[in-house]
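Incident log, structure service

09:12 report received: a user says their structure output differs between two submissions of the same chain.
09:20 pulled the input from the user's history:
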Amino acid sequence: MSKFPSSSRRSQVLRWGLVLAALGGAALLVLRRDDVLAPARPVPPVTDTADRMAAELLQAAQRADMCTSANPAGVGLRGEYFDKAFLKGSPRLVRTDGVVDFDQAVKWPSGTTQKPVSSVRWSGWVRAPISGGYRFHADAPGMRVLIARKLVAGGDAPADEKVELAAGRFYPIEVTVDRLANSVARIRLEWTAPHGARYVVPKALLNLPTETATAPKA
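09:34 re-ran on a clean worker, output below:
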């Protein structure tokens, strides 16, 4: 009797070996695929208000490309400065202000001999970094904030008035101060964001008045 298996038996053993090898390779691929598709560890939520605000401002700067080609990044608002109170007459000075945040009374730029202005208007577009309810603040006397022509702060607006803004969308904004006085400690455009942090609306979210940015549909 031969000590070696017949050719047919050898072929059968070889076939089973190939089958087992294939099954083993498939199992290894499945394991590797499971490793790739395994969910990442959840990122712990940011709970500190200052951290949330910093993260939001960073995101606003990174998403500046959502602006129009004419204004690829936030540049601020158009400021119009008037000799007379209540925005009467023609503005004596028109310039771009990156943010609305002034100490003491608003005065002409240094180096000029013009007298201090009596009223001022800032206008343009504001873009919300996240969706939710925003509360604008108008602490200076005679200051008003309008969003899409709606009074949201100052004047007869309720103290807790909020406006719903959608992330990435442009909204027309107008900020006016009817009468400037040397007693005004500070004039600033601030909002309380949906997460509860209050801060000056940054330059990255403000754009000049332009037809290239269209108002959001109702």
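09:41 both user submissions now match this output. Likely a transient worker issue. Closing.
09:42 reviewer note: The chain is about 20% helix and 30% strand. Residues 111 and 161 are 40 Å apart (CA to CA).
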